[in-house]
Structures are given as structure tokens and as C-alpha cells.
Design a protein that fits this description.
One of its GO terms (molecular function) is dephospho-CoA kinase activity. It contains eight helices and five strands. The chain has about 240 residues and is mostly helical. The longest helix has 28 residues.
Length: about 240
């Protein structure tokens, strides 16, 4: 549940930085660096540990460790509390202390790695995938990128277009799910269709197997349209882009 968990550095990178720090502070120091797969790590099972360094905000975690150690028949650890350094450069919306959460927030908008060069992909337009759940801010970001000149493709609108009478997925969807999903005016009743697939993974897959390929084809048409308009950047707004 960390803020911007996607921007947490890989374990190998973090361990390498910690090694570099320890060797810089005291080259003769003997240490083990252990990946933590749970909130306690080896602190509740290692009989050789004697002390746990905590801060004011993690003291309760240290006390929880000692409770677990007693349950496991191990002696309590001495809790050594340190003060956390203040961050002189913190902004109004950031924590006062030096914080990995604040550092991750500052990484937003940073190119973490250069774009992969793929000779099979055209250089223009440059296509950006924009994804995330409801309320994640996709629409706001898409509008901002559109104001900067990007060509916007809304996958949700394409999905609706795929279902309309005469749309590329219309006949297949009606054939697969029956005439009862069709309104009197010939349009597909999305509520009735939704009720048929909701909670049924097999039926949902049947629907996406029909609709998603058609949407992908429509997206490619839109990208070609962006190219025809001379657009350098194309943004695809899609909630289930990765799926």
C-alpha cells in the first residue's frame, strides 16, 4: 500500500545502494542484507539478533516484533530509537522527514529508461498508452496531453462504437448472446448484456474475444488517421490496456 509503488526501485538496486553506503561508512563492517517478504522479516525468528533500530513512527512496529519473538520463545530485542533527518527541500505537500514516498513523487514525469528502439515500429506517430482504474486521473491527463497537441484515442468510445448496429462487433455479439440483448430500436442493451457476463469468467472471455480484436483494429485505424494529420504523438486512453 505504498504511495506510487510502481516507482519503488528493484530490490537489486536498493541492495547495491545499501552495500555502497555501508562500505563508505565502515569498510570493515560485517553485515547481511536480507530481502523482507513480510512486515517482520527474520527479526521474529533469528535467535542471534540483539537490537532493533527504530524511529519514533516505527517504534510500535518494534514492539510488535518483540511480542512475536516472545510468542516464538525468543528474547526481546533492545529497541534503539533514532531521530529521522528533516528534508530541507520538502514541499508543502510532502513529509517533513527525508522520505522515499516524497522521492517517488518527485520521480513523476521522469523518463525511467529510454524508449526501446524497435525497427518494426514506425517512428511517427509516437504512441503512448495511458491506463489505470476508475478515478485514477486518466481523463485529466489525456486532456492535458491533448492540449499539448497529442492526438487522443478513447478506447471506451471505440468500445461503444463496436457495439452499435452496423459496428464491427455487433453481429457477432448478438449471435453469441442472443436476441434478448437487443432493444426495439436494434441497439444492444448493455445492461442486459452486462448481466449475462457479470461474474461469469467464461462468458466474459467470450465477449472480450469478440470485441477486443475489433477495438485493436479500430485503434490502429485511429493511429493511421493521426499520422495522416501529421500528429507526432498519439495517446491511447484505455482502462484495460495491458489486459
Amino acid at each position: 500500500d505504498k504511495v506510487l509503488a510502481e516507482l519503488i526501485e528493484p530490490y537489486e538496486v536498493r541492495a547495491a545502494k545499501l552495500r555502497e553506503f555501508l562500505e563508505d561508512v565502515k569498510p570493515s563492517l560485517r553485515y547481511d542484507i536480507v530481502p523482507l517478504a513480510d512486515p517482520y522479516g527474520p527479526s521474529v525468528t533469528d535467535p542471534d539478533l540483539q537490537c532493533l533500530v527504530v524511529s519514533e513512527e516505527t517504534r510500535r512496529g518494534g514492539e510488535a516484533v518483540n511480542k512475536k519473538r516472545l510468542e516464538n520463545g525468543l528474547p526481546e530485542l533492545a529497541l534503539y530509537e533514532i531521530l529521522l533527518m528533516k528534508d530541507p527541500d520538502h514541499s508543502q505537500n510532502e513529509e517533513e522527514k527525508i522520505s522515499s514516498s516524497s522521492l517517488r513523487q518527485r520521480l513523476l514525469g521522469t523518463l525511467l529508461r529510454p524508449p526501446r528502439q524497435d525497427p518494426t515500429l514506425p517512428s511517427r506517430p509516437y504512441v503512448i498508452g495511458l491506463t489505470g482504474g476508475t478515478g485514477s486521473g486518466k481523463t485529466s491527463i489525456a486532456k492535458l496531453l491533448g492540449q499539448l497537441g497529442a492526438f487522443l484515442i478513447d478506447a471506451d468510445k471505440l468500445g461503444h462504437a463496436a457495439y452499435v448496429p452496423g459496428g464491427p462487433a455487433y453481429e457477432q455479439v448478438v449471435a453469441a448472446f442472443g436476441a434478448e440483448i437487443v432493444n426495439e430500436d436494434g441497439t444492444i442493451n448493455r445492461k442486459v448484456l452486462g448481466a449475462k457476463v457479470f461474474g461469469n469468467q467464461e462468458r466474459l472471455k467470450s465477449l472480450t474475444d469478440i470485441v477486443w480484436p475489433e477495438m485493436a483494429r479500430m485503434v490502429k485505424e485511429q493511429i493511421r488517421e493521426a499520422d495522416a494529420q501529421g500528429k507526432a504523438v498519439c495517446v491511447l486512453d484505455a482502462a484495460v490496456l495491458l489486459e
